[in-house]
Design brief:
The complex is a heterodimer of chains A (about 100) and B (about 110). By secondary structure, chain A is mainly beta. Chain A is built from no helices and 11 strands. Helix content of chain A is about 0%, strand content about 55%. Chain B is built from no helices and 11 strands. Classes of the chains: A mainly beta (about 100), B mainly beta (about 110).
């Protein structure tokens, strides 16, 4: 079946640091999305990015469909960025990256 | 513009019982998908409904069934509940079957005792 692998599984940063989260896919990239899950469990849409690069404030994402991976960049991290980040492709989710930003 | 709404938000059941969860999609969306998220794991795809039919299904037993109504809202039914069915159940809607951006509701947290 379709495999979605995320790395790293856990990431601890100091406030103000930058980070890169990665998502690898075993199959073609069709409906790539990045989400942030808040402490109450809701999945917040960050990017819908089947290909190319998008930016939204301190966050940006790049998907290289031919190489079957996507990257999520977080710059100048804040404590409110803490939580679990998921990528998903064609209904399948990765296991997530748990980000902790310390003040 | 109302987003995806789910009910109930929390519920407690005992083993062997049956449960029904409900979802109303985002305005303008006609496709609904259901996910199960166990504690500490990523969401697992259960099934997707479009035009009142199940279009795709993940690796879940027949105890998990669903329905989509003419107004595009959907129900997830789970029969013969097991302790392992305790999870957050998430509903997502999208504008097109098989493609498109998913938008999630806040989920229904089920505890099976």
């Amino acid at each position: 079946g379709i495999q979605v692998e995320q790395s790293p599984p856990d990431l601890i940063l100091q406030e103000g640091a930058n980070s890169t989260l990665r998502c690898n896919f075993s199959d073609s990239v069709n409906n790539l999305q990045w989400f942030h899950q808040n402490p109450w469990g809701q999945l917040i849409n960050l990017f819908y990015i089947p290909s190319g690069t998008k930016q939204n404030g301190r966050l940006s994402a790049t998907t290289v469909a031919t190489e079957r991976y996507s990257l999520l960049y977080i710059s100048s991290s804040q404590t409110t960025d803490s939580g679990v980040y998921f990528c998903a492709n064609d209904m399948r989710f990765g296991a997530g990256t748990r980000l902790t930003v310390k003040p | 513009d109302a987003g995806v709404t789910q009910s109930p938000t929390h519920l407690i059941k005992t083993r062997g019982q049956q449960v029904t969860l409900r979802c109303s999609p985002k305005s303008g969306h006609d496709t609904v998908s259901w996910y199960q998220q166990a504690l500490g794991q990523g969401p697992q795809f259960i099934f997707q409904y479009y035009e009142e039919e199940e279009r795709q299904r993940g690796n879940f037993p027949d105890r998990f069934s669903g329905h989509q109504f003419p107004n595009y809202s959907s129900e997830l039914n789970v029969n013969a509940l097991l302790l392992g069915d305790s999870a957050l159940y998430l509903c997502a809607s999208s504008p097109n079957v098989g493609t498109g951006e998913l938008f999630f509701g806040e989920g229904s947290r089920l505890t099976v005792l």
